């Protein structure tokens, strides 16, 4: 059986790269897409995640020709209709974690794939996460760890924040940044085959 064409991950996220490797997919390249990630006015979280995944995929596919699979993804943490930011300063991280403390929230990841020849497909996965109420000392310790830096909603489920998590309903890998079963379904639907 001939091998697959190359696969390009349209993301600079080390977490997404590690997740693909976990299921035996080794991208030939990771490329940071240059797009505006700001939400549109009144844009819902699910729509925002899907739109950005498509934009990332298309930005990279447009630069690299038609000979590779290209996977784009975007993860959004939402509290109700509110899209929480990717936190770059400690006060933003504190606000996010205080908002999420003791309540449920949703994590959406849009995944968009383009195959060689131009066929494409996309989907948005959703996972419900429930945090226990956070004590001030553990909140301060988490903020001091800087694990929140650059993370949607101010936390990384695969790190210390797993200790905040009472329940997850849906894909764990979605909360990390790439719903693996959805990604595999999209790739296989467009002709990707796993080699033995």
CATH architecture: Alpha-Beta Complex
Spell the H/E element sequence.
EHEHEEHEEHEHH
Which structural class fits the helix and strand makeup?
alpha/beta
Shape: elongated
Strand content: 15-25%
Q: Helical amount among residues, as a percent range?
A: 25-40%
- Please identify the top-level CATH class: Alpha Beta
- Distance from N terminus to C terminus (CA atoms, Å) equals 10 Å
Number of domains: 1
Descriptive account of the structure:
This protein is an alpha/beta fold and 196 residues long. It has a single domain, classed as Maf protein, CATH 3.90.950.10. 33% of the residues lie in helices and 24% in strands. The chain is built from six helices and seven strands. The chain has helices spanning 14-22, 45-64, 90-100, 136-145, 172-176, 180-189; strands at residues 7-10, 29-30, 69-79, 82-83, 104-114, 120-131, 165-169. The protein starts with 6 loop residues before the first strand and ends in a 7-residue tail after the last helix. The mean pLDDT is 94.
């Amino acid at each position: 059986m001939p091998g697959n064409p190359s696969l390009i991950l349209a993301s600079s996220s080390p977490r997404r790269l590690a997740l693909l490797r976990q299921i035996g997919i080794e991208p030939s390249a990771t490329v940071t897409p240059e797009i505006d990630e700001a939400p549109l006015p009144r844009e819902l979280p699910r729509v925002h995640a899907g739109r950005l995944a498509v934009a990332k995929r298309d930005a990279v596919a447009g630069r690299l020709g038609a000979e590779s699979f290209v996977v784009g993804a975007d993860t959004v943490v939402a509290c109700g209709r509110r899209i929480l930011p990717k936190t770059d300063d400690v006060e933003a991280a504190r606000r996010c974690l205080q908002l999420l403390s003791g309540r449920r929230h949703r994590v959406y990841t849009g995944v968009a794939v383009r195959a060689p020849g131009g066929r494409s497909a996309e989907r948005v996965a959703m996972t419900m996460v429930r945090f226990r109420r956070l004590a001030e000392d553990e909140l301060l310790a988490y903020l001091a760890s800087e694990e929140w830096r650059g993370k949607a909603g101010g936390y990384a489920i695969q790190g210390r924040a797993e200790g905040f998590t009472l329940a997850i309903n849906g894909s764990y890998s979605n909360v990390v940044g790439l719903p693996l079963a959805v990604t595999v379904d999209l790739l296989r639907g467009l002709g990707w085959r796993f080699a033995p």
